[in-house]
Specification:
56% helix; 60s Ribosomal Protein L30, Chain: A
């Protein structure tokens, strides 16, 4: 009788042990799942933070781009109003290039043939342009000189070795004029010459050569 009771008690204990082991495993699995979920949550939190930073960065870029577009639109309207007669006569062209604005002075509007001294009508135009460029301080000003591919005449070679030197001298003359007479900060100005190597038209016709003889003043918003 005692043996049967002991056997029953042992069976009950074994059953309880199995139950306890199962419970322990469930708790261990739950703990493991909790730790795993904790790691996943930390990784997700990291990704969310990274995405939030990327979104803020993109929003800042979009805001800056909108400001640049607005600035260039305002500048373009001001230039077109100020120089409307010359634009109508196709002596000046204003081109919006998404992130910058280009003002093209064609042929002899600023310089007489083979000369790097700004002519009187050119000085008046540049002074007018400097007047509103002073108000648009968040733009740097790049001045580019361009020529056609016709070699310089012998008399001009006493001053300029070739079209490289002529185009560069013209760009530098405008930069100097805008600084000294136009009152622009020289830190905003840069000048370069490209000779005949960046044509916008064919040099095989007089019309094309006329288009290639030009000064480009490029307004670049400071980012």
């Amino acid at each position: 009788m005692k043996y049967m009771k002991l056997e029953a008690g042992l069976h009950s204990a074994e059953k309880q042990a199995v139950h306890d082991k199962k419970k322990i495993k469930e708790l261990a699995d739950a703990q493991s799942n909790y730790e795993y979920q904790k790691i996943i949550n930390m990784q997700l939190a990291g990704r969310i933070k990274k995405l939030e930073l990327e979104i803020k960065k993109k929003q800042s870029v979009i805001k800056l781009q909108k400001e640049i577009i607005s600035l260039l639109d305002d500048t373009k309207k001001t230039i077109e109003t100020s120089l409307k007669d010359q634009i109508a006569q196709q002596k000046i062209e204003v081109v919006n290039m998404e992130d910058k604005l280009k003002v093209i002075f064609i042929d002899k509007i600023l310089f007489n043939s083979g000369c790097s001294d700004i002519n009187n009508s050119g000085k008046k135009l540049l002074l007018r342009m400097a007047g509103f460029l002073r108000d648009y301080k968040k733009q740097n000003i790049v001045i580019e000189g361009h020529t056609d591919n016709v070699p310089l005449k012998a008399r001009l070679k006493k001053r300029f070795a070739g079209n490289w030197e002529l185009s560069t001298a013209r760009a530098a003359a405008i930069a100097r004029f805008l600084q000294k007479k136009g009152g622009l900060d020289p830190k905003r100005l840069s000048a370069c010459g490209y000779s005949s190597y960046r044509p916008v038209a064919s040099n095989s016709t007089e019309k094309g050569r006329r288009q290639n003889r030009r000064i480009e003043i490029i307004l670049v918003p400071v980012k």
